[in-house]
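## Example record

The block below lists the input lines for one assembly entry, exactly as stored, with component labels intact.
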Amino acid sequence: MVIKDERQLSIFAITIQKEKLERIPILETPPIFSDKQPSQELISPIEGIKKYGPYDTNTSDKHLSRKFEGVEFFVFYPKNEDIIYRTLSDLISMLRDGYFERRGAHDTTFEGFESEFRLKEAFIPETNEFIGYTPGSLQKELESRKNDFTLVFERGNRPIVIVGGTSHRSIIKNREQYLEAKLQFTNLDLPCQYASYYEYETGGAGILYSVGRKDRPFGYSLWNFALNIYGKVGGLAWVIRQGLSKAARQVIDLSIGIRFVRSKNQKGFIIGYITILDRFGRLVGVISSQPFKAQIEEGVAGMVIPKEVMESIIIEALKKAISDVRVKEIFTEKETVNIAIHRLSIFHSQEIQGIISAINKWHESENEIKYALIPIIDTPPTLAFDKLAKYWNTLRGTAIKLNDHVAMLYSAGATSLTDRGAFSYPITVIAQNLGEEKCPFTSLEEVCNYVYSLTNLHWQTVIPGSVRLPATLEFAQNVAHLSSLGIMPKESSWLWQTLWFI
Amino acid sequence: MAVNEGDTLSSIQAWKVKMTRQDIRPDPKGRTLRTRLLDKGIAHSFYEKYLWAMPVNGHKVSELNLREIISENFLKWEKEEVQEINNFTSDEMWYPVSIVLLRDAIRYALWAKLKNQKDFIIRGKREVYDKRQIAYSGIYTYVISGISFDKILRIDHDNICLCPDIVYECYDSLNRRVEDHFERQKSILLASRCASKVYCERLESMIKDIFPLEIHLSNKTLKFNSIYYEIIKEPEKMKQARLEKWL
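Predicted structure tokens for the full assembly:
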């Protein structure tokens, strides 16, 4: 079970200053699909991929360019589940041959995985090549196929496993199917995309259920499915261009997100998971802490991470970053490296001491580090309504200052003044050490812009405005969740270069 | 965001009694101390070996018999005094004492205001459900909406605001709370998906039965009249790249 660690009470840390209430201008950070794309071109992920192709096919940066030529699919289905087999067959054929039906006015087309993602080849099996397995015995089924997976790499391609099943993330029923698939394929260093079919008395859920619903648009679901696959094989569909700090054209070189999960083995113990993203939002690596006893301090709401634990995980995160070839250059070229650390709660003084101690120790032998402490609170203390908009929906990208260090930020939500969609909740952004010498940001506006740009970096959906938290915390949450279920690639696995956890 | 328009939170009188939770007298009916004291209109919090308490039923500390209340509910105590709190919204007091007392005060005020109105259900976390507000009605389930007053923020130097939020509860056709997670989540998701304008209309329609709300906190009376606080627009700062083209 994942501890959200919202430290719900942390909203008490916010004191609204009425005279400070004002709107903060936020710049849109358009996704970039090509180095040649005009910098002001605002283009949706689908339009961008269709027009330019994914970013990693259009860049001259050797660290960002695509490292594989094609993708080879392996499709698994549980035996004796005819409905899964049939719907999976429809889904896979759409991935291969495209989807051109227009199921309603708000649908979109998909020209096939190979074509849309500009791959040299995408081997997508025919229905009779699907692999049936008996739930509970997947490992046995895979024994004889290990060599097939290895050969994929020898051909310069990347493998992806699609598993159909009756499990769904929102229900407990049949969850063992999902967990078995994730566990067995991750153990074999194979990225796995689960396709679920779940039917209940009055409806259903999951992409396989949606395939058959001819009265509902399916194009966006298919795009999301394909985008997830692309990320899971290590593709980089888009990046964002950071221009976050007006001062000296600075960027945040590393963004670090921290989330927690209860230890399965030691009752009362917590494990922290830390994701490290580079300035393009690519995952540099994941660090997990040693299990530690969560401290509850009188007078402080929620859990406090012991100083030594915080110090240790920050040093490990920096070591991980500098060991990555893509990031190493930054550390060798720059005298001062800027990092931002996020968590879903305010940083306790003990935690700050741990961070400072880690950074001081690092500075003794390596670069100077400037650090920003940015708690994000995903339970909004208050809401904003835009009475100038037709349905009062607040535009995505709206930020409102609550005091000198705190703003509410609509990272998801309406994309136009006439958007009639369901309203969304803002997140609260706290610039905890803003104004201090070591903070790389000079204003709350810069912090909000930075956090907002990170919410564009999730690669989980082609629909803008549907992910509220920055990628650091989204990714750390997913990794922590899977880890709590015992699903984690080996330290040396190539999966760490991919979005295996989304 | 409902800003308190009544008294500010300075110079609040409270009882401070040296004792700990271990000194609580067990209740033969099994009620919690909070329930027992709130029945008498008393809010309380334990902090640093002291009980902090104050009346929230409109009385002042001098008007109630503290010794009687203490002897009914505690096995022993050392000394009691009346203390004037001048740092109610400071970090030191806010987390362990003030917020706890305020929560009790809100709970009591909601109960006092709505106790005779049969259309409302008051739940633990300062949630008020309006049985008439059916937000979604499926074949086997229906969802009613309510308001949560759980979020309390400090505003300016010595004031607070409530941040009311719509909450939902799902029932089946026999008026039993739906426990099945999937069914419950599905219905509440459908009920809660609405544009901001509809959200505001729902909130306004429910809050009109609750506001104006007076919350008594010892010698102070807080008043909440409106849920909106208008942000003054600054046209030159409103420029933002739009995303109309995205979809």
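Chain B touches chain A through 53 residues (CB under 8 Å). Residues 7 and 222 of chain B are 5 Å apart (CA to CA).
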